[in-house]
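haha ok so turns out i had the wrong file open the whole time. this is the CORRECT one, sorry everyone. sequence first:
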Amino acid sequence: MDKKNDMSRRDFIRRLGMGTASAMAMMAMEPLKVLGDDNVPTPSTANQMTCRVNHHSGDKVSLLGFGMMRLPKSQDEVNKMVDYALEHGVNYFDTAPAYGNSEVVTGIALKRHPRNSYYIATKMSNQNPRFHSFEASKEMYLRSFERLQIDYIDYYLLHAVGGSGMKDFNPRYIDNGLLDFLLEERKAGRIRNLGFSYHGNVEVFDWLIDNNDKYQWDFVQIELNYVDWRHASLDNGGWKKDADAEYLYNKLDKAGIQAVVMEPLLGGRLAKLPEEFDHQLKALRPNDSIAAWAFRWVGSLPNILTALSGMSVMEHVTDNVHTFSPLDPCTDREKELLAKIADGMSGYPTIPCTACSYCMPCPYGVDIPGNFAFYNEAVNSKLLPLPEKASPDYKKSLSTFQKGYKKTLSKKAWADKCMDCEVCLKKCPQQIRIPNQMTRIVELINEK
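then structure:
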């Protein structure tokens, strides 16, 4: 990747108004397993990472992207995971200022490798009103270069747009002139691809895509998996999204914008399914992990540039690399089975937490993701919902839940510490009514 050549090529293509097919022919890419719009792979060597071509820049991006949000604490462990990923063809690494020390850790790990061997994605995480001024946002932007130890950013995102709709988006990006500044940074080459990650209110998503002629988005990051495909907008335990992933994906496809996928495992929930669903998948592909099914489903969609996985241990990296090297797209039969499982999953009373931890820290010490993870595990293992009170198994099931809860979570992090302050509500991209869900858990742990 030659930065100057890439930028001049992009400008040349845009000025001539060339179509994707002509542009791709012009780029003279070397042979590599690329899934095009017809989703038919070119011949490839066994164990080779499946890649997709960015229609704007010509980047050959690994279909498996490395989400750098849930990393181990040891820099040495992170380095080993990054080294393995790069060695096996993973070249897209996603971080953000909002992910704690992730940018620094990511920068240290990647600096040890040639700059043209990877693509870095980071974000404008100015959700907090104290960052809404142009000066504060620009400072965050410049700090990302320092933390990542780079002089250009491959993929830059407006982080977590949606939220409370345009009334939240406008002060973050329009009123302060920040979006105009980022567009100029793209022209200057310090940002190679500009996009946004979407959560929540579809009003913002629609407005940004409807104005694509003005902004020319290079990519858009959306939450997409086989459950959210048609069930994201269902009311489930006090949670509701504005649009199913099918709508988001199709609108991007129609606009000619490639999608980057977040939450392909729905916060890990699709890596460990309820027993009856697990058995159905194992019966068809006994050697595959349950997580591999979700990745294969996402990778079967042709307008996906890369699918992010928040890999926190080496076992995640090796299993995911195996799944994508090369990708074996889902058959029609497998897609039908996953659609039926999604229908069944939508009826399960789980809390749709993806463990992103944007809600943290809680002012009162509640481990919000930890509480939700334990509750969901109890549902998936059929411990919840509890049997009828008249049932002889009721007391036994309740006791098992309470003992497991107290053993798993520190007392200072229990749900009963929630004071219903609602600080977490504005932070949650899944729009979960967190205090309401904590009340449900408190009722269970206090029941006699």
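Residues 1-44, 234-240 have pLDDT under 50 and may be disordered.
again sry for the mixup
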